[in-house]
Design brief:
Elements: E1 2-7, H1 12-28, E2 32-37, H2 40-45, E3 53-56, E4 59-63, H3 69-77
Parallel strand pairs: 1-2
Antiparallel strand pairs: 1-3, 3-4
Length: about 80
């Protein structure tokens, strides 16, 4: 199972990213889980200085923006 971690403290873009990730998982039918990471110390452990960010299986893939659903689906396929 893939683990998609949405890194953000709760800003509107962070919330939108979480919803977009959930939608991409649902539409793709992939065995994946969306996890919200809102603890600043934990976000900094990823080396992220700008949110929102998206990590897949612990590796940061997108920083500072909300990717399109098709981008997220591509990350699910990797």
């Amino acid at each position: 199972m893939k683990k998609l971690q949405v890194l953000g403290t709760g800003c509107p873009k962070c919330k939108k990213l979480f919803l977009t990730v959930q939608q991409a998982i649902d539409e793709s039918g992939t065995d994946a889980e969306a996890i919200k990471v809102d603890d600043i110390a934990e976000i900094m452990e990823f080396g992220v200085m700008m949110t929102p960010a998206l990590a897949v299986d612990g590796k940061v893939k997108v920083v500072g923006r909300v990717p399109r659903i098709d981008e997220i689906k591509e990350l699910l396929e990797d």
